[in-house]
Write a structure and sequence with these properties.
Length: about 250
């Protein structure tokens, strides 16, 4: 068996490199303010936003049926109607959706220490951004956080035949960088997609970002390594390579 050093790192985007959940919450707060000040909603404003959050978490998007803008405007329209009753109000739903979306994108930024880490890592290994999600939504986030220049390649699940955890998207990513799965490390915050996918594809290692100290279910995939912040990665990669060096 040939022991290989890490040659490439695949990063997830949402809640790994950028705080998507926090940005989304800020978007919801702006919508609550709008509904309360302009439309004089009271507690219904928060109820509507909670309902939309649930709809987003259960979202099934099929590009052949609709576009993401129509689908997400419909989440707001349904939430408003379920809460307030009466006839559907598409115009208000659009206003809420676009305010939530624009606020969310404004807060999707790469922190300075993350930028510095990526810049340093790229001197040693190849970097690839591997994100699941609908094409337009993910490309808008990538544009908003201006992360393109930190990566050798960017792969969006919604543009591929299969998303994480399917091995095919990992093999495609390896081919883009000219590396083998055994050369690569996957870093992400989601056990079911990032970690399971890395395991399925036979990558050298998987690194789970567990910011909140969550205890995974016994049935969850088991990552090779667990860190609380993506900023711990350079030291971890060094220790992985040291193990290879010692074994050799």
């Amino acid at each position: 068996m040939v022991l290989r050093r890490v040659r490439a790192v695949f990063f997830d985007l949402d809640n790994t490199l950028i705080d998507t959940a926090g940005a989304s919450r800020k978007g919801m707060l702006e919508v609550i303010k709008l509904l309360q000040s302009k439309y004089h909603y009271k507690e219904e404003a928060e109820i509507i936003c909670d309902k939309v959050q649930v709809k987003l978490s259960k979202e099934c998007f099929h590009p052949s049926n609709t576009c993401i803008t129509d689908l997400r405007t419909s989440h707001w329209e349904e939430a408003i109607q379920e809460t307030k009753g009466g006839v559907a109000n598409r115009k208000l739903a659009e206003e809420c959706y676009f305010l939530w979306k624009s606020t969310r994108l404004q807060h999707m930024t790469l922190a300075e220490d993350v930028k510095a880490m990526l810049t340093e890592l790229r001197k040693e290994v190849r970097l690839l951004l591997l994100t699941n999600g609908e094409r337009q939504t993910q490309r808008e986030k990538i544009e908003a956080c201006a992360c393109q220049s930190y990566f050798d390649a960017i792969v969006v699940g919604g543009e591929q035949k299969e998303e994480k955890p399917a091995p095919s998207i990992f093999y495609y990513s390896c081919d883009l960088l000219g590396v083998q799965p055994g050369d690569c490390v996957m870093v992400g915050d989601t056990l079911e997609t990032d970690i399971q996918g890395g395991l399925n594809a036979g990558l050298k290692a998987t690194v789970w970002i567990n910011k909140n100290g969550m205890v995974p279910l016994k049935s969850s995939p088991m990552p090779h390594y667990i860190v609380s912040s993506v900023l711990e990665l350079p030291a971890l990669l060094q220790s992985i390579d040291c193990k290879v060096g010692m074994s050799a």
